UniProtKB/TrEMBL annotation:
InterPro entries: Asn/Gln-tRNA_amidoTrfase_suB/E (IPR017959), Asn/Gln-tRNA_Trfase_suB/E_cat (IPR006075), Asn/Gln_amidotransferase (IPR018027), Asn/Gln_tRNA_amidoTrase-B-like (IPR003789), GatB (IPR004413), GatB_Yqey_C_2 (IPR023168), Gln-tRNA_amidoTrfase_suB_CS (IPR017958), Gln_synth/guanido_kin_cat_dom (IPR014746). This is Cytochrome c oxidase assembly factor PET112 homolog. It catalyses: L-aspartyl-tRNA(Asn) + L-glutamine + ATP + H2O = L-asparaginyl-tRNA(Asn) + L-glutamate + ADP + phosphate + 2 H(+); L-glutamyl-tRNA(Gln) + L-glutamine + ATP + H2O = L-glutaminyl-tRNA(Gln) + L-glutamate + ADP + phosphate + H(+). GO terms for molecular function: ATP binding; ligase activity. Belongs to the GatB/GatE family. GatB subfamily. Pfam families: GatB_N (PF02934), GatB_Yqey (PF02637). The lineage of its organism: Eukaryota, Metazoa, Chordata, Craniata, Vertebrata. Residues 406-510 form the Asn/Gln amidotransferase domain. Keywords: ATP-binding, Ligase, Nucleotide-binding, Protein biosynthesis. One of its GO terms (biological process) is translation.
Amino acid sequence: MAAPVLRSGCPGRCWVLAWVYGGSRHRRGSPAGSTSNWIRGQSSLAQQPLHTARKPRKGEHEWAAVVGLEIHAQISSNSKLFSGSQVCFAAPPNSLVSFFDASLPGTLPVLNRRCVEAAVMTGLALDCHINKKSLFDRKHYFYADLPAGYQITQQRLPIAVNGSLTYSLCVGKKRSQVTTRTVRVKQIQLEQDSGKSLHDDLRSQTLVDLNRAGVGLLELVLEPDMCCGEEAATAVRELQVILQALGTSQANMAEGQLRVDANISVHHPGEPLGVRTEVKNLNSFRFLAKAIDYEIQRQIKELENGGEILNETRSFDYKLGCTVPMRDKEGKQDYRFMPEPNLPPLLLYDATSLPAGADSQQVINIDQIRERLPELPSVTRERLVQQYGMLQEHSFTLLNEVGLLEFFQNVIKETRAEPKKVTSWVLNTFLGYLKQQNLAVRESPVTASALAELLDLLDSKVISSSAAKQVMDVKKGNPRAINKLIGLVRKATLSRADPAVIKAILEKKLSSC
């Protein structure tokens, strides 16, 4: 068999790799109480059963909930997993489809190097064991937006296994205490995304857009070490921040780059685990938490009323705030997994196994990727707390808002103000301003330099705190005038104008905004 070609993420560049194979998308066939997926360990606080908030009435047994997650993250790459087609959100329908994406006869997959490196980097960040040999498989099922009739995935031997994800929860009556918990990562695997079906109810037809078909995905399977919606949402939020820090995925849920399936069951403590249901395609943290908590209470109510829980797939109706049935899973679907015949085993190397004289551009070196790992969010938070003396919850806010940490650090570099004052202004005044205007950090008309100047003027008592906040008050008028106002104050200050004159100029401009 000829050696496969491993592409870079950029069109027009090719890489040769030593050997390939692997893949799986959903573990639909695993039984509700399988030992490998659903037995909870007792080694950490995260794995100890937590019970539902509802206290049992007299004569009743308390309930424990078990939650596991399957997460699909779109890999940040210029091209798709097995073709050179561009990846671009909101492109015109069917404008980014290659012959391979459309599954035309005679087309062959060419593995994207960037996607493999992203999977390895994510696995290392989550303390996974990286398999030096992984395999690709075909998973057969029929969807109108799956042209080939199968998905290339890693069912038998994924690229990374046995990791962990640590996240922090705020607990206590005032939620002022922070506790750390851990969920096990069963595996990380590479796989293709499907196309998108657009349902036109007016014309009673479904249109298919294949732009997304073949886009590279990371599927991360989290073991059922969680017990409620808040835990699950917090764990996924932490994963999102890690992926964004690594640059392996933008993980924008609004654009479908991070999608979550939740597996949920309830049981009495000490008894066998219950039948689980799967809630599909949850695309926001709020909906994820609501869907899980609703499903837990639904199952408890059903069992207490003498009913039974069906092993079924459900979806979350955000308008009604409840889960609704999609299809039952009692009749096990045969996906007819088979080895992908057009992709040999994927071989990775480290410093000890790298062949002598091997071209670094033709192989993937695990140790080189490990050396390129950036500072992880947990380390960044500790550094912020120690370096600037900020509260731990403030460090979480800085990292959770995309671009806010960079903005904060740029303000710190350019101002003489104390870090605590900068923290307060960035997290309260500046972030509140963005929320009111419904803007992302990158869209803010207030630059880091402008805010630094404003804080310098405040620090030197050229302007008062109320005047400084008035400059940031978007209710006063056009928010894009803020930078001009700060510049005006700066010029007046440099000209050594009387402070009363500066104040009068500022108030006049503010009143005219």
